Amino acid sequence: MTYLVDSDRVADYHKGRLDAIDLFARREPDGRAISLITYGEIYEGIATGRDRQRHEQSFFAFLRFVSVLPKNRAIMRRFAEVRGDLRRAGQLIGDFDLLIAATAFHHRHTLVTRNRAHFQRIPHLELYPAG
User: Fold this and answer.
1) Which residues contact 5 (CB under 8 A, 6 or more apart)?
2) Which of 16, 63, 81, 110 pairs with 88 at a CA distance of 20 to 30 A?
3) Peptide bond into 70 cis (omega under 30)
4) 44: which residues sit within 8 A by CB, 6+ positions away?
């Protein structure tokens, strides 16, 4: 199984949360990825936070063990479709979350996130843990 890890879980890992560290330790390195959106969200925290150099080094070390998945036209089409469906249902969520979900759909990855309240609104999006 392959996993797309959401920004919240990457941040948890970097904050030293044991559940997140364990989560990464239990996954095969070639079965984990983050989206380019997550890369940007995490890097924003590094750029605006304290001790930029240390956090940047830590993030770059982390990137050796995950793939960073870029956006493409197919992902953007899926983003537009899902966004339209959620808008019509009155269940719209943030664009960054939608882009992450569209990336998970496109690559057929299970999304690892704590933000189940938002992502559960998206039909057929596989979440870890299932439920």
Assistant:
1) 24, 32, 33, 34, 38, 66, 112, 113
2) 110
3) no
4) none
Q: For residue 26, is pLDDT > 80?
A: no
Collapse the DSSP code of 112 into the 3-class scheme (helix H, G, I; strand E, B; otherwise coil) and give the result: strand
10 has a pLDDT exceeding 60: yes
Q: Which domains does the chain have, with CATH numbers?
A: 3-128 (3.40.50.1010)
- The CA–CA distances, whole Å, from 57 to 52, 53, 97, 115 equal 8, 6, 26, 27
- Segment 8-21 mean pLDDT: 91
Q: DSSP 3-state assignment of 127? A: strand
Structure confidence at residue 65 (pLDDT): 87
Three-state SS string across 55-67, please? HHHHHHHHHCCCE
The radius of gyration of the chain's CA atoms, rounded to the nearest angstrom, is 15
**How many whole angstroms separate alpha carbon 60 and alpha carbon 46?**
11
